[in-house]
């Protein structure tokens, strides 16, 4: 926001020219503002500033019996018009302070309405009601005078809200708070199915030598665990191992993808079945006849939630009366696996 800014300066020599203000709200004491403009802001139209202050003061008054929420809703549109027309206030720089009484002229000095005891204000960025806390002057070095003094800026009144309550990052502390809040919300969200599946695959007790972690070079043929290999250019080849058990770099990569896809499918179906069964209180385990190697028909609910993309069906051993690893073929040719 642009416009005239009148910071409060407390200095022994400065306050002989510009009188000490009556409170710690920059821009509230118009006698202080007038003296500051006359001595340090040449060419500024004081009457125009007072006229703008009167418009804001009219909106700041909370009527007797009116709630703060009703007051905020009632003045919002007119307040937005003032800001859109760039009629900026000296006192209401960042928010509209709640007040009571009326502004008036006394001996050519304009007196603004008194501050409401609730110390509430409407912040211009989010249009929320915020509480303005009391602040103390901050010791500041004035290089022009080459001495220390005390100063209060209009944004100092908003520092507590910006650091602890504001939903927009206005200060470094406020930015850190928003990042921490976002991270806590991220930690509280439910774990995605993809992450559950990947964690299950990482801990499915598959031996390291069967995970295809290494890759053969272009001129090499090897077995799954890379313990037996030979070079195409070389003369030696282990004839005791069939050729279909050797892989080149292309078939090795394909086999690796297929193996990982199967492991992911098994882990995913196991997690989905556990979730479905825990949320279905009336679920009854399906019985697979070991003698006839056929399956008594599952319900449509069970069947639709236990299929996998690999063409087979996986059922948790908790819900099938068969040991883990049992693989049986259905009448339609599909294979059902108990995991």
From TrEMBL:
It comes from the Eukaryota. This is Uncharacterized protein.
């Amino acid at each position: 926001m642009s416009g005239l800014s009148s910071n409060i300066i407390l200095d022994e020599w400065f306050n002989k020219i510009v009188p000490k203000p009556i409170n710690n709200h920059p821009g509230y004491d118009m006698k202080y503002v007038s003296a500051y403009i006359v001595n340090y802001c040449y060419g500024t139209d004081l009457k125009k500033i007072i006229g703008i202050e009167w418009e804001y003061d009219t909106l700041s008054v909370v009527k007797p019996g009116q709630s703060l929420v009703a007051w905020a809703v009632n003045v919002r549109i007119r307040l937005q018009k003032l800001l859109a027309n760039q009629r900026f206030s000296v006192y209401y720089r960042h928010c509209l302070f709640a007040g009571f009484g009326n502004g008036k002229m006394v001996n050519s000095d304009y007196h603004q309405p008194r501050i409401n005891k609730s110390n509430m204000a409407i912040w211009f960025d989010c249009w929320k009601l915020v509480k303005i806390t009391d602040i103390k002057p901050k010791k500041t070095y004035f290089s022009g005078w080459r001495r220390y003094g005390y100063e209060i800026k209009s944004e100092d009144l908003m520092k507590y809200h910006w650091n602890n309550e504001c939903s927009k990052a206005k200060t470094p502390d406020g930015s850190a708070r928003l990042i921490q809040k976002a991270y806590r919300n991220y930690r509280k969200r439910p774990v995605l199915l993809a992450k559950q599946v990947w964690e299950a695959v990482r801990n499915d007790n598959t031996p390291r030598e069967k995970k295809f972690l290494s890759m053969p070079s272009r001129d090499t043929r090897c077995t799954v665990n890379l313990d037996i290999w030979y070079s195409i250019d070389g003369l030696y080849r282990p004839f005791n191992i069939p050729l279909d058990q050797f892989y080149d770099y292309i078939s090795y990569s394909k086999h690796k993808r297929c193996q990982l896809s199967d492991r992911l499918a098994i882990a995913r179906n196991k997690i989905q079945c556990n979730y479905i069964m825990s949320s279905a209180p009336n679920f009854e385990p399906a019985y697979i006849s070991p003698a006839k190697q056929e399956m008594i028909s599952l319900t449509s609910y069970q069947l639709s939630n236990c299929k996998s993309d690999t063409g087979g069906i996986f059922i948790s051993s908790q819900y099938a009366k068969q040991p883990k690893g049992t693989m049986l073929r259905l009448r339609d040719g599909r294979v059902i696996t108990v995991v």
